[in-house]
Structure formats: C-alpha cells, structure tokens
Amino acid sequence: MQFVAFERKLQGTGASRRLRNTGKVPGIVFGAGEPAMIELDHNALFFALKKEAFHSSILEMELNGKTEKVLLRDFQVHPWKQQILHIDFQRVDDTTRLHKKVPLHFSGQDDSEAVKTDKCLVDHVTTEVEIECLAIQLPEFIAVDLSGLVKGKSLHLSDITLPAGVKIVKHGSKDPVIVTVAEMKEEEIVAAPVEAAPADDKKKAKGKK
Fold first, then answer.
1. Does 49 share its domain with 29?
2. Is residue 37 pLDDT above 60, yes or no?
3. Stretch 148-167: mean pLDDT, rounded?
4. How far is CA 100 from CA 46, 73, 90, 103, 152, in A?
5. In angstroms, rounded to a whole number, what is the distance separating the alpha carbons of residues 179 and 144?
6. Between the CA of residue 123 and those of 44, 92, 150, what are the distances in Å?
7. Same domain for 19 and 79?
8. pLDDT on residue 25
C-alpha cells in the first residue's frame, strides 16, 4: 500500500493541536537514520487504518518526492471522537528483522468432518499471532486451513503451516490452542402448555349459544 506524508516543521503540543484542527495528523518516522517529523491527511489516514493490510504489511511512504518502505508501529486515537491523534512508522529495508503481529485467515471449516458430519461448533480462540522474520518476508496474513478438523480435537499453534522464513514468537504456553472444536448439545424443545379458559369465560360462551 502507498500513502503520502508531508514534512512537519512545527513541533510541540500547541502546534500539534493546531495541526489537528486543520484536518491533519502529526506523526514520526524512526529507524535507519534521523527521525522525520511528518503530517498526514486525517481522512485518508482514517480510512487507511480500516484496512487490514495497512497494519500488517510493508507500506510505501512518499515524503518530499522520495519513497521509503515503512511499517506502522503505533497510533493513538481520541477517547470518544473518531479522530486519530498521532501515528508512528518505522523505516525498514530488506535486511530489517521484525517482530510483528499478523492476522490469521481461517478457511475450510464448513468442509471439515467436525462441522459437516458431526455438527460441531468451531471457536477461533486466537485471531492473530506474533511472528519474527525479515521485512521482505513479512506476510500480510497467515492462512489456516480448517478442513481437517475432527470432533474432540483442537488446533494448536504448532499445527499452523508458516511461510518461508517466518517464526512464531511464543509467550507463556509452549503450544497454545488456536481453534477449539466442541460437540453441539441438542436443544430440547418443550411445547408450552395450553392454558385452560377461565370458568367464567366458559359460562359466558354457553350463554351465548
């Protein structure tokens, strides 16, 4: 993905506040040289942040007529307004080694024995994982095939097929669960009893006859 940034000359809390009032977002680019103070168009950035790829892939930033490869590292939003307050990017090249969280894209669960035959419930316990790799090897997402799911067996982190050069960064559990499979309990449908008409109503009905 590509985006355009502009050099930010004024710094400080007051300058950043005035910048936001004009529809801009202050930011910084660090790594591989001197930090660069930048500003971006708020609306363009707001919609870019809604795209998954903007968070988990190498971006091309155009600044002062030069294009650099960067990675989104952090951003701050207003507590209740739909407003981006600040954003941080990191410069990268093909030799930069990264630790980055990437999303998991699940597919094939409806074709699995667990769902198709045994009518089990599938729960995606984890939807993203932290990986380590070179910037050039950073995947936008990791595909997880669930077509082999069977009743009573969970999918663990070690069961995921990773792209070449990508390693999982583990925290805590040695092999955490990614997907669980649970047998669906049959719901007992109890028919509601038909309420008998009150005695007075029965008498009135007979009187009308």
1. yes
2. yes
3. 93
4. 21, 9, 12, 10, 32
5. 10
6. 35, 36, 13
7. yes
8. 94
